[in-house]
C-alpha cells in the first residue's frame, strides 16, 4: 500500500483510509461490532494505517469501536478524528453555535421525533472538551489529525485555529484539518500556515471541489485532500440493483441517488468501466477508488468498509497505478 505524507507534516499515511462512519451505525441502519473490528483488522493487515472517525459517528460509538480495534497497535496507526459537531453540551441550550439537524440515536429525524439537537460549534473551550472525550473513547493520549467537521459562523475562525495550534503545541494532536469548508474558509485556514488536510466529498459523481476551486487551492498550498464518500455511499461499487432495500434508518433510503432509475443509470456507466477494470484485474469499485487516488499526489481516499470482505476488496485499490489516459477515459464516461 502506498504511503503519502500528510500536508506539511512528517506523518505518513496510507493512500486508502478506513472510513469509520458506517461502523458507528448511525445513519447506516445499525452496526455489528465484531464485524466492524474484523474489518479494521483486515484493512490494517492489507497495509492501511489511516483511520478516520468522528464523535458524531454513532454519538461516540465509532470512536469506541476504533479504540478497541487498535488496542496494542496504536502507534502504528494514523488516527484522525474530528470536532465541531456538538449534541450534548450545555452550550447548545444557550443558543451558541449553529443548529445543524435533529436526530434520534439512529438517524436524522424531524424535530418532533428528535432526541438530540446537533449544533455546529467550534469555540476553543468546546473543542477542548470534545477532544478529551474523544481521547477517552479512543483509549489513547494523542490524536494524529484533528479536523473541524463542519464550519460555523458564530466563532471567529482565528479563535478555532488558535485552539488547534495550542493543542498541537501541547502534543494532544499532531496535525490539523478542516472539512466541509467553503473556498474562503479553506483559504483562511491555509493563511494560518497550519493546515495539513482538507476533507471533502469527492468521487466520480461529486466533483464540486474542482469546480469550486478547493482542489486547486489545496494543490497550491501542499494541503492533502481526504476524499470522503468516494464510492458515493456504495453506489459506485456497481453492486446495488434497482429496488435494493436498505435497513431501517439507512440514509440511502430517502436519497434520490438510490432511486431505481438512477441506480440503473449509474450501473450502465459502471459497465463501461469494466474493460479497464478487467485489464487490471480489478472490480469496478476498486477502479473507482484507484481513479480517486490518481487525481492528486496528496490524495487519501476514505472508504467506508463494514465487513472484512469490503475491507479486503477496497484496500487492494491502494496498490494500483493507473495511466493518465485511463484516468481521463474513466472521467469521460462519468462526465
Ligand atoms: N467529513 C464529513 O463530513 C464526512 C462525510 C461523509 C463521510 N466521511 C468519511 O468518509 C468515509 C467514507 O464515506 P462513506 O462511508 O460515506 O462512503 P463510501 O466509502 O462512499 O461508501 C461506503 C459504503 O459502501 C458500501 N461498500 C463499501 N465497500 C464496498 C464493497 N467493496 N462492496 C460493496 N459495498 C461496499 C458499504 O455499505 P453497505 O455494505 O451498507 O452497502 C459502505 O458502508 C466515512 O466513513 C467517513 O470517515 C466524512
Question: Which key phrases capture this entry?
Answer:
335 residues; alpha/beta; TIM Barrel; eight-stranded parallel β-barrel; three-stranded antiparallel β-sheet; 13 strands; globular; binds NADP nicotinamide-adenine-dinucleotide phosphate
Describe the structure.
The structure is a single chain. This protein is an alpha/beta fold and 335 residues long. It has a single domain, classed as Alpha-Beta Barrel (TIM Barrel), CATH 3.20.20. It is 36% helix and 18% strand. The strands form three sheets. Strands 3-4-5-9-10-11-12-13 form an eight-stranded parallel β-barrel, surrounded by five helices. Strands 6-8-7 form a three-stranded antiparallel sheet, with no helix packed on it. Helix 2 links the parallel strand 4 and strand 5. The mean pLDDT is 94. The structure holds NADP nicotinamide-adenine-dinucleotide phosphate (NAP). NADP nicotinamide-adenine-dinucleotide phosphate binds next to strand 13 and helix 10.
Give the CATH H-level superfamily.
NADP-dependent oxidoreductase domain
Order of helices and strands: EEEHEHEEEEHEHEHEHHEHHEHH
What's the Cα radius of gyration?
A: 19 Å
Domain unit count: 1
Instruction: Figure out the total of helices.
Output: 11
Strand order of the largest sheet: 3-4-5-9-10-11-12-13
Range of strand content: 15-25%
User: What's the main sheet like?
Assistant: 8 strands, parallel, barrel
Q: Helices and strands: which structural class? A: alpha/beta
Helix content: 25-40%
The total of beta strands comes to: 13
The CATH architecture = Alpha-Beta Barrel
Span between termini:
29 Å
CATH class: Alpha Beta
What hetero molecules are in the model?
NADP nicotinamide-adenine-dinucleotide phosphate
Shape: globular
Q: Report the uncertain regions.
A: none
Mean pLDDT over the residues: 94
Examine the coordinates and then state which fold CATH places here, giving the name of the CATH topology. TIM Barrel
Amino acid at each position: 500500500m502506498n504511503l503519502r505524507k500528510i500536508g506539511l507534516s512528517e506523518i505518513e499515511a496510507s493512500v486508502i483510509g478506513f472510513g469509520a462512519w458506517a461502523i458507528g451505525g448511525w445513519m447506516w441502519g445499525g452496526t455489528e461490532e465484531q464485524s466492524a473490528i474484523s474489518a479494521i483488522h483486515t484493512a490494517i493487515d492489507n497495509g492501511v494505517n489511516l483511520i478516520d472517525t468522528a464523535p458524531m459517528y454513532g454519538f461516540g460509538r465509532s470512536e469506541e469501536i476504533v479504540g478497541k480495534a487498535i488496542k496494542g497497535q496504536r502507534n502504528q496507526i494514523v488516527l484522525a478524528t474530528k470536532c465541531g459537531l456538538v449534541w450534548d453540551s450545555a452550550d447548545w441550550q444557550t443558543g451558541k453555535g449553529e443548529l445543524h439537524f435533529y436526530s434520534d440515536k439512529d438517524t436524522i429525524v424531524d424535530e418532533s421525533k428528535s432526541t438530540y439537537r446537533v449544533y455546529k460549534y467550534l469555540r476553543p473551550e468546546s473543542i477542548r472538551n470534545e477532544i478529551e472525550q474523544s481521547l477517552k473513547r479512543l483509549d489513547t493520549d494523542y490524536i494524529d489529525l484533528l479536523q473541524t467537521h463542519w464550519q460555523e459562523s458564530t466563532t471567529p475562525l482565528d479563535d478555532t485555529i488558535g485552539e488547534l495550534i495550542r493543542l498541537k503545541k501541547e502534543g494532544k494532536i499532531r496535525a490539523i484539518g478542516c472539512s466541509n469548508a467553503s473556498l474562503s474558509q479553506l483559504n483562511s485556514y491555509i493563511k494560518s500556515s497550519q493546515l495539513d488536510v482538507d476533507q471533502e466529498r469527492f468521487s466520480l459523481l461529486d466533483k464540486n471541489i474542482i469546480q469550486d476551486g478547493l482542489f486547486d487551492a489545496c494543490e497550491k498550498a501542499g494541503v492533502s485532500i481526504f476524499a470522503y464518500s468516494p464510492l458515493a455511499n456504495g453506489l459506485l461499487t456497481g453492486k446495488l440493483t434497482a429496488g435494493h432495500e436498505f435497513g431501517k434508518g439507512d440514509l440511502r433510503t430517502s436519497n434520490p441517488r438510490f432511486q431505481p432509475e438512477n441506480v440503473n443509470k449509474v450501473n450502465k456507466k459502471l459497465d463501461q468501466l469494466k474493460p479497464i477494470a478487467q485489464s487490471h484485474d480489478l472490480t469496478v469499485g476498486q477502479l473507482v477508488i484507484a481513479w480517486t487516488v490518481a487525481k492528486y499526489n496528496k490524495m487519501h481516499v476514505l472508504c467506508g468498509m463494514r465487513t472484512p470482505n469490503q475491507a479486503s476488496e477496497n484496500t487492494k485499490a491502494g496498490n494500483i497505478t493507473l495511466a493518465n489516459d485511463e484516468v481521463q477515459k474513466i472521467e469521460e464516461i462519468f462526465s
